[in-house]
Design goal:
By secondary structure, this protein is of the alpha/beta class. Among the domains are: about 1-15 and about 25-180, Rossmann fold, CATH 3.40.50.12780; about 345-410, Roll (Luciferase, domain 3), CATH 2.30.38.10; about 415-510, 2-Layer Sandwich (GMP Synthetase, Chain A, domain 3), CATH 3.30.300. The chain contains 16 helices and 27 strands. It has a nine-stranded mixed beta sheet with strand order 2-1-11-10-12-13-14-15-16, with helices on both faces. A five-stranded parallel beta sheet has the order 4-3-5-6-7. Strands 17, 18, 20, 21 and 22 form a five-stranded antiparallel beta sheet that branches. Strand 10 (about 205), helix 8 and strand 11 form a beta-alpha-beta unit. Helix 1 packs across helix 8 (about 215-225). Bound molecules: adenosine-5'-diphosphate. The site of adenosine-5'-diphosphate has 21 residues, from strand 14, strand 21 and strand 22.
Length: about 525
Amino acid sequence: MNERLTQTLRRAAQSNPNGMATVDGDRRRTWREVEARVARAAGGLRALGVAEGARVAILSLNSDRYLEAYYAIAWAGGVMLPLNTRLTTDDVIYMLGDAEASVLCVDASFLPLVAQVRERCPLLRHVVFLGDTGAQPAGAMPWDALAAGELLDDACAAGDALAGIFYTGGSTGRPKGVMLSHANLVSNAVNAVYMIGYQPDCVFLHAAPMCHLTDGMSTVALTMAGGTHVFTPKFDAREALRQVELHRVTHLTLVPTMIAMLLEVEGIERMKLDSLRQFMFGSAPMPDATLHQAVAIWPGMLFLHGWGMTELAPIGTMLPLAMRRPAVAGDRLRSCGQAMPNLDLRIVDAEGREVPRGTTGQIVVRGPTVMLGYWRRPQESAAALRDGWLQTGDAAVMDEDGYVYIVDRLKDMIISGGENIYSTEVENAISLMPGVAEVAVIGIPDDKWGERVHAIVVPREGAQLDEPAVQAWARARIAGYKVPRSVQVRRERLPLSGAGKVLKSELRAPFWRAHERSI
Ligand code: ADP
């Protein structure tokens, strides 16, 4: 196995040397320039002791230097550790310690953490500053200085060698370090280039956090295709729309909560966004209401629904091209598509037997993008990888044509009086109620039924909602036992993880505090 992360960059520089590689504010660089900067920055990292297997963390908002760091770490033979930008200082310290990182790359927004991190992470030897030279704190090496140093020969780490440790966003508990190899990331990129159709003329906007693979997979895949990366530091609906117009962005990947925020921008229905070819979404359940609204605004757009997880580097399924047009796909837009070209994907029962089509079971996946395991967690790795099959923990249905419909995370499924209730089905029904901006459905303790369905509803501005009205709406659409027994109307938005997913664990916590288990 010879897959190398750095090969994707070398190919871009070879096949599209003068093509625009990165656009970050006023900074623009060609692929030839980016390759040279990466090779030099790798030399700088080597001088800081980064050699085979050394862990280098990145804690930064999106930027061109983030992409350069991704590649320079691999070029030097190191292992990248892209840290979630919404973490608390304690979480950052935990992960740096757990992974034994020796170098931390930070941008200006995370500088306030550095003193504490240095004090509490004895193995951390160097801090590299991803902001502009001149603004770096004492003792930190500016990235541009590294990128102007001596060229290093590519260390050529490849195949099963560890390329990165990606801590999962933690939407279901304590983050685990997912170990992804060069082969994992490159195999995923090949899949993505093929399925998305990335070409040198594609322009991708990094609007979702680059630390998360929903966005990160395009860091590698679009590079492989020699396209153009545009960066915006963090998601802001108006700013993302401005960047799309300004840079003629062709591809955008967002999680559903971000799409919902775009749809709230005043005048959105009049914005043509005519450069945009594909609107890619996934990473969390897409509420029916958000999807309907997006399709109504952009009927001619290609909507690419995908499903994946960090453990799959990350894509597991995508809608095929023919099914991305709303007029053709119809209800199939709700499907997250078919297995990626080189993956075996099955829906199985609790005993691991494949279930008949149309029956709900757990998705299991086998193939070259399946992670190596969880960093230093042999038991959890063994539980997740059985005979090479990744146990995804996601419940889904597959139809006769191999289309997969995500039903729920098994951990979010509510068992009430012995009946399985999928939270996303209840959420979808309520999301369609006029006046509902956001909704999350969780299981809360119930002495009689074990768990009962509880809905947390955030009304749109000016809308009046109450428990009986929400229950009546739901009762008209879903089976009686799935109707929320209780409804809380909440004024502030739902809590989100760094990747923009609703933190159900946080919503459940107050209800389960006095109980032993929380699902
Ligand atoms: P975290 O567990 O921290 O959220 P991941 O980003 O790896 O980290 O999350 C993967 C999970 O996101 C999947 O297991 C699944 O539950 C959810 N997910 C991903 N894509 C979709 C999708 N298209 N529809 C519904 N859920 C999705």
